[in-house]
Amino acid sequence: MKSGSPLTEKAFDKDMSFMLVEVVKDQMHFQVISRTGETVDSGVLTNQRKKGASASK
Question: What are the domain boundaries of the chain?
Answer without folding.
Answer: 17-46
